[in-house]
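So, is this right?
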Amino acid sequence: MSLLTIYPDQHPEQGERVTDVNAIVRWLDRIGVQFERWTANSPLAADADEAAVLAAYAEPIDRLMQQYGFQSVDVISLNPDHPNKAELRQKFLSEHTHSDFEVRFFVEGSGLFYLHVDGKVYAVLCEKGDLISVPANTTHWFDMGSHPHFVAIRLFTTPDGWVADFTGNDIAQHFPTYDQTVAERV
């Protein structure tokens, strides 16, 4: 189940949790973040390749590509056996911005986006079926956990793909991690 936790940016111990998808959509819309739930047009095999994943979600992908002028789309997959998982996690854990949208749709698994906006941190636990679109120039970071498991569709308006401008702020070190957030849900 999707989860939004809203924290004052100076008080990571004071999070307010939201689990209703419609309420999550409303909260995130207030800060310009698009959040949607998608379903596949056809079932996917466990070992589905990139072409099969993109075909299963062709209709909503086409809608977003037309709506925002996305030029490219791909699929990223990470699992606990990935040889560079620790390095990738550290890279994404630093607060940064992009000059492009950061759009992710979770086909499988989950990940935690933290959006630092107007004195608050919005921690969005995205799971299978969730689409999040972080606007350009929004400060944020991402935690995939110490044992990542996700398959996500990524959409880009530029051919350069994922390019980050790191803020140098250590705020990410002060908030509950993906692993802590998931453990607290149980």
